[in-house]
Amino acid sequence: MIFKVIQDKFKVKSGLKYLEDELGKSKPLSNRKPGVSSIGCIVDMDKFPDPEVFNKLITDFSLQPNGVKIIGYKKDEAAHSPFGIQFFTDKDLGWNGTIENGFVSEFVDREYDVLINYYIDDKLVLKLLTARTNARIKVGFPAVDAKLNDLIFDTPIQNFEVFKTELKKYLKVLNEIK
Q1: How far is CA 65 from the centre of its chain?
Q2: Packing angle between helix 124-132 and helix 2-24, nearest 10 degrees?
Q3: Do the Cβ atoms of 129 and 104 come closer than 8 Å?
Q4: Which of 117, 118, 131, 158 is 20 to 30 A removed from 147 (C-alpha atoms)?
Q5: Is the pLDDT assigned to residue 68 strictly greater than 60?
Q6: Closest by Cα among 132, 137, 140, 136 to 108
């Protein structure tokens, strides 16, 4: 038991070190063309219990049916999750900033035009997933480290429609959508 606690502390420390190193690097240029054809969403399901609304982005942005990929985060893993969204927990934190979860690996293996970081709590596993995900534009909230996001919207997390309206407005300004 004591060994497990010590091991978890070292995992957190190695994750923080990895995150610090990643945030210190300059962002590599993406070779993806302008436009939005894929959107990744990292959602804190403890703060926003309806991650299914992100599927509406498929019609709102005229994407292919597989154009939106959603992964959720929950503090504790429930035995039988009522959610249809794949998720990960704090227990999935591995060494050197890895998140040891098959759903996370699948999520990170894709490249996105837009990554929506729909969380407001400063949680290491969420920030690590954001840092590991390849996206041309990363969007989030001001409560999270500003180095993680390219666009920051100061909207209430519970009001997805306001967030979506702001996202559309700024993507039009950036000539990503018409």
Answers
A1: 20
A2: 40
A3: yes
A4: 158
A5: yes
A6: 132
How much is the pTM?
Answer: 0.89
Report in angstroms the alpha-carbon separations of 132 from 98, 104, 105, 107, 127.
9, 10, 10, 10, 9
Can you name the residues that pair with 72 across neighbouring β-strands?
A: 43, 87
Chain centroid offset of residue 101 CA: 15
Q: Does 32 score more than 80 pLDDT?
A: no
The per-type count for the chain, helices as H runs and strands as E runs, is 5, 6
Distance between CA atoms of residues 19 and 3, nearest Å: 24
**Mean pLDDT, rounded, of the chain:** 88
Computed on alpha carbons and rounded to an integer, the radius of gyration of the chain in Å comes to 16
Q: For 62, left (φ over 0), alpha (ψ -120 to 50), or beta?
A: left
Distance in angstroms (rounded) separating the CA atoms of residues 121 and 118: 10
Q: 66 near 118, Cβ under 8 Å?
A: no
What is residue 44's three-state secondary structure? strand
Higher pLDDT, 178 or 119: 119
Query: Hey, what are 6's tokens?
Result: 């010590």
Structural tokens at position 62: 């005229």
% of the chain beyond a pLDDT of 90: 61
